[in-house]
Design brief:
Chain lengths: 115, 116
């Protein structure tokens, strides 16, 4: 079984300050981990993914995440928030490989940017 | 650009009136998924196709059906929409990787369904 916990349902930061969105996972095997972003009334856009290569993963729009196996964490960070970063962020872990991968989603973190 | 397209973006239907949502893709991916996402919730997988093989989630209501006439297109049919079916419906695609696993899922923009 696998699960993912997003520790904050809502994060507010001021424009130009760092962003930290926290995610912990549970998996009985070596997981693939993803962060997706969803702007209002839009589909999900892949920000970045970890698939057992480098533990520090760089994504689009200046985001990055670090896979820490000892802490079972995959936190998302960005050095300087921009107004356009305001959105819902989902941490996702991939399912077991039965030939059909299923995604397990976290409950989401809503990021608000304060001007 | 290769992409996942959903039509329409917004759909309004009446209680009990059948509705069909459309998804097409130019990625040539062999796996296609349908998710339901209600307000302030994570997406919930309804079913997926692995090539032509249909895989239904155990808790997907019988009211929801799907068709995949070819690699590029997939349809979601809601036979008798209820008020509780109002949601965003997301289509996603992925491909089988070289080692047999499934690669990243790519999502379309979604169709927001309103039931009156």
């Amino acid at each position: 079984a696998q699960s993912v916990t997003q520790l904050d349902s809502h994060v507010s930061v001021s424009e130009g300050t760092p962003v930290l969105l926290r995610c912990n996972y549970s998996s009985s095997y070596s997981p693939s981990l993803f962060w997706y972003v969803q702007h209002p009334n839009k589909g999900l856009q892949l920000l970045l993914k970890y698939t057992s290569a480098a533990t520090l993963v760089k994504g689009i729009n200046g985001f990055e995440a670090e896979f820490k196996k000892s802490e079972t964490s995959f936190h998302l960070t960005k050095p300087s928030a921009h107004m356009s970063d305001a959105a819902e962020y989902f941490c996702v872990v991939s399912g077991p490989n039965f030939g059909n991968e299923k995604l397990t989603f976290g409950t989401g973190t809503r990021l608000t940017i304060i001007p | 650009d290769a992409m996942v397209i959903q039509n329409p973006r917004y759909q309004v239907t009446q209680f009990g009136k059948p509705v069909t949502l459309s998804c097409s893709q130019t990625l040539n991916h062999n796996v296609m998924y349908w998710y339901q996402q209600k307000s302030s919730q994570a997406p919930k997988l309804l079913f997926h196709y692995y090539d032509k093989d249909f895989n239904n989630e155990a808790d997907t209501p019988d009211n929801f059906q799907s068709r995949r006439p070819n690699t590029s297109f997939c349809f979601l049919d809601i036979r008798s929409p209820g008020l509780g079916d109002a949601a965003m419906y997301l289509c996603a695609t992925s491909r089988e990787g070289r080692t047999g696993g499934i690669d990243t899922q790519y999502f379309g923009p979604g169709t927001r369904l309103t039931v009156l």
